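2.7 Reproducibility. Because tokenized structures are sensitive to small changes in the input, we list the exact sequence used for FAA-hydrolase-family protein, including any N-terminal residues retained from the expression construct. No trimming or masking was applied before prediction.
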Amino acid sequence: MAAYVLPTAAQAHLDVVGSDEKFPVRRVYCIGKNYVAHIREMNADERDPPVIFMKPADAVVRNGGEIPYPVFTENFHYECELVVVLKSGGYNISVADAASHIYGYAVGLDMTRRDHQKGVLEKGLPWEVTKAFDLSAPIGPVTRAEECGVLTSGQLTLKVNGEVKQDADIGLMIWKVDEIIAKLSEQHRLQPGDIIMTGTPAGVGAVVTGDVLDCTMEGLEPMQVRIGPKAV
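Resulting structure tokens (single pass, no recycling of outputs):
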């Protein structure tokens, strides 16, 4: 066994509903611009294809709980999303075969430093500063596909302090889950442990310390996140 000069990081993982086993997270792929109404509220071009970006695996926050208000932002936004987790992968997966690679689904939040997003988009800079920061991917427990079936519709809802802010059927996604998997596999060799955040509907907005976010999706386990004091 190799000896490392520093302690190794813990394996990022997600809980699995009805099991003591854990789902190990390898990569976190994210899809932007995947609901027309959200594209319009961001004043983006709805003719553009969805954007593909990543978050680091250690950005995952298992089952929500409390996350700090992050440093380097004064405009911290939620984006509630359906999360797809993969049990297998490869290059150039066909749309018809995509569902066979799905282990299960969860609800998640793509937390965003919105005040930095406009600048990086205008300058054509990478998205990491706005998307890939610490604890920016709270994700709920995984429901296995064998339990919930292949999800092509169902209501995705986010409440802030009990008030509905996002509410849309995943059937409204521009790129469907099977198409997302196929497109990602053109550019990346998908592997077991990869997860995909599939994009957010309209209704994104800012949160502050003390706010409570409730994320739900028909057929999946809910997730609650509380925004804590500013990180130091």
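Residues 67 and 227 are 5 Å apart (CA to CA).
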